[in-house]
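Hey, I'm writing a tutorial for new members on how sequence and structure tokens pair up, and I'd like a real worked example in the thread rather than a made-up one. If someone can provide the structure for the chain below, I'll link this post from the tutorial.
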Amino acid sequence: MNIDTRCVHAGWEPEDGGPRQIPIYQNTTWYFDSTEHMAKLFDLEEAGYFYTRLANPTNDAVAARIAALEGGVAAVLTSSGQAASFFSIFNICSEGDHLVTSSALYGGTYNLFAITLPKMGIEVSFVDPDATGEQLREAIRPNTKCVFAETVSNPALNVLDIEKFATLAHDAGVPLIVDNTFPTPVNCRPFEWGADIVIHSTTKYLDGHGTVVGGAIVDSGNFDWDAHAEAFPGLTTPDDSYHGVTYTERFGKGAYITKIVAQLMRDLGSIPSPNNSFILGVNIESLPLRMAKHVDNAQKIAEWLEKRDGVAIVRYPGLPSDPYHALAKKYLDADGGCGVIAFDLKGSAEQATTFLDALKVISIATHVADARSCVLHPASSTHRQLTDEQLVSAGVTPTLIRLSVGIEDADDLIADLDQALSSVL
């Protein structure tokens, strides 16, 4: 099926006389006729459900829908995009391990990698998203367990050279994990270019209405964990907490996701509520329609901003002048990829914040990728904790504005931007 059809139908097959829509299993526990049945579930000998902290049918149906959109073999939902980022790493990294990541990251991810993971004994090396192959190889260490990057970075809008990063990772015998939140699988499918694991903040475009926080992790099933068994003992050696089960032996291509559910959800409990997953599943049905409108609006506004006095630089991959335009044409189905624009004003940081305050239709919000247009000054908000050096490496300048273009009328949004700019510059 084409992706438009998968957005509507994937993940749920109604039975004769059963519910047409994915039902909400709003329960914590399940009933069993025998202790033997429950014991087999706890030993991972049978598939099924016994406690929603680990898994729930509503969550699993929506996860299967997202896996189908990305072309993966299995997926799991988490309570937030930040949890998805953490679980994707912690599932294969532990104390003494190392990962390589692009420095062009969402501020929360940057803090997770730069501050929290090192407290857990996991070392992180940040590389320029435009680093050469040789520079990338120099960042690899014997204890490196994965490479991480964003397909279209937040907020700098760097477009990742997925094939280059995938080659680096695979030459080192480790998987490439990419955050595909901004373009979504409608506009980019990283597995087709060599990525091994994809994560999402489903809070953003997949939900698209600012209603539910969530995350997702999707496994391509392509990385051969057993071929690098010594590097990934959590997947390739017996798990004593499940009576010696070895995930790759018992679950094959589903090993990575099964381990997240069986271990991390069990111990850390970052499951979304079934009601939130239901809302997410409904909103995904309109994803292709919304993404087309987001990209069309953003292209029109980016072209207008590029000509507007008072604007120094416009970053949007759909612009021919953008340094990532060629990569966008290679990797993204729509050149812009998403509805997010980053631009710098000709002025001070104070003028940038004054500009935001003057907007009337576009709202200031710690959010992005919504049906409603919203705007943010990253240096004073999402990236506020970063040092000046870290801000530069993340592509965040003092006058950078992140504009998330919604699905309103583009001319109305341009009029709002125009009046706000006129009042400041």
